[in-house]
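Our collaborator T.R. sent over the components below with a one-line note: 'Predict the complex.' Nothing else. No constraints on interfaces, no templates requested, no preferences about which chain binds where. So this is a plain run: every listed entity goes in together, and whatever single assembly comes back becomes the starting point for the next discussion.
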Amino acid sequence: MTREVLLRVDDLVVGTRDGEGREVRLVDGVSFEIAEGEVLCVVGESGSGKSLTMAAVLGLLPTGVEVLSGRVEYRGEDLLGASERRLRELRGRRLAMIFQDPMTALNPVKRVGAQIARAVRLHGDRMTRAEGDRRAAELLASVGVPDAAARARAYPHQWSGGMRQRAVIAAAIAHDPDLLVADEPTTALDVTIQAQIMELLAEARQRTGAAMALITHDLGLVAQTADRIVIMYSGRIVESGSVWELFDTPRHPYTAGLLASLLTAESASGRAYAIPGSPPQPAARPAGCPFAPRCELPTKSERCRTDVPALRAMAPGHTSACHHADSVSSFAQEVTR
Ligand SMILES: Nc1ncnc2c1ncn2[C@@H]1O[C@H](COP(=O)(O)OP(=O)(O)O)[C@@H](O)[C@H]1O
Ligand SMILES: [Mg+2]
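Returned assembly:
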């Protein structure tokens, strides 16, 4: 089955300037596609450029950070050249966002129900106040908020973090969006609540048929959620492919390291693997492969320190940016043992 491409990001470069006015690339040549109804997970450690990539797509980059080059298309429409008005319309109705902290989306001094009703009205549907309240309560009930009509009259601070995130998801799906962009939607929540919110997102997706871009630093979260995964490191994509391929035959030592950390975390042997070191600051990215200083591949060579590896196809739909992609599988088995 071929599904229409919903979002196409092509060679996106996002940058800022350092104290001396030098250009610093925070996202460096990122390309990916999301098809209708598909779940793409963007995975990488904190600082790898995941949030800025999606912020650039949605026209929500912070002040001082800008798109330097590249192309972003939503159903063939150029988004980087789109007006603020058009972007706001798309974000309200077609491309919905869910952030780590639900309070970024909620107004602390307005009742939750009124905010949901306002979101519904703002992006199209005309209705009376009573209808708005009823629709808000329905939406809240549909995302599992108990006693929704009464709770809708409370303020966000009277709600738990998990319930607030439910409210944000209710608002996000109110207009049947094409794409849900969820940026670390469970990171700020208790572990017990995280699974419930992931389940709710899956349900919401099924109900609306929306595609989803799920951003996470937690590879463990994606196994059951994703169709495809993009692994980011230091502003670049280092590997991408279907979930089963990346888990089964990783082709980049960073992916192998993330997998090994995940799989050995609760292992009986008690030897938990951790990738040594930490990622470089964008302004101090090393020449060559940005992962080379932390790389433990036995085949690591001089070339890794001098030449930036390009993303290349390993199999249909599976790409890796490693000079030694062929030796990753045996390394992965070694460190996961
Ligand atoms: N407003 C900003 N100004 C300058 N640098 C920023 C800004 N926001 C993020 N960065 C830097 O850009 C890089 C990527 O950030 P981000 O996309 O937030 O990473 P992630 O979401 O993967 O944790 C990081 O090094 C971060 O410090
Ligand atoms: Mg982030």
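Summary for T.R.: The longest helix spans residues 191-208.
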